[in-house]
Amino acid sequence: MKRARELCDRHQVHLVLDEIAVGFGRTGTLFAHEQAGIRPDFLCISKGLTGGTLPLSVVLTTDAVYAAFYDDEVARGFLHSHSYTCNPLACRAALATLDLFAQTDALRQNLGTSERLAAQFAPISKHPRVRFDRRKGMVFAWHVLSTPARLRPPLCLPRAGAGAAAAPHRPHDLRHLIDDALVRQ
Questions:
Q1: Pairing of β 58-61 and β 42-45
Q2: Beta strands, E only, the chain
Q3: Tell me: the pLDDT tens digits for 83-126?
Q4: Cβ(110)–Cβ(136) under 8 Å?
Q5: Which of 27, 132, 139, 143 is most buried when burial is the number of CB atoms within 10 A of its CB?
C-alpha cells in the first residue's frame, strides 16, 4: 500500500481504497490502510459500518477533494449517490456501531476472535494441496493447487457450531465462512 501511495503521489493520481470487506477491525486495526501508515484520497466502507445489520455504504475523501467539487453551480458540483445511502434506519445503525467501537475494546476483542479462527483453520495450511497461506487479522487466504476432482481429498473443515467452516470456492483459494453461514457461488 505504501508503494501504491507513492506512485499515486508521484503521478498525481488519487488513491482509492476499498475497505468494504476488510474495514472495521477485520485486519487488526480499524482500517487496513492504517497498518501501512498511509491515507487514501478516497476510502470506500460499507459492511462493518452497520455491523452487517443493514445495507449502507460511504465514500470518504480528503478535504481537498471535497473542496474541489463543492460548489453552488450544478455544473461544478459532484452529483453522485450510491444505492445504499441516506436510509435513516441504516444511518442510525451505523451510529450505534460507531458508538460500540468508541465504548468497547472491539479491536482487542477481534484479536481474540482472530486467534481462535487461526487455530480452527490451522489444519488447512497443512493440507498437501496448500502451497502457502497468509493472514491479516480475521482475513485468511490459501493458495490451493488444482487437481482433478477424482484425486482430490476433501478440503473442508467441519462446521463447529457457531465457529468456523470453510469450503472450496475456486480452485486456487478458499473462502472462510463465519457463524455457520454457507455461501455458494
A1: antiparallel
A2: 16-18, 42-45, 58-61, 130-136, 139-144, 164-170, 173-178
A3: 656 789 999 999 999 999 999 999 999 999 999 999 999 999 88
A4: no
A5: 27
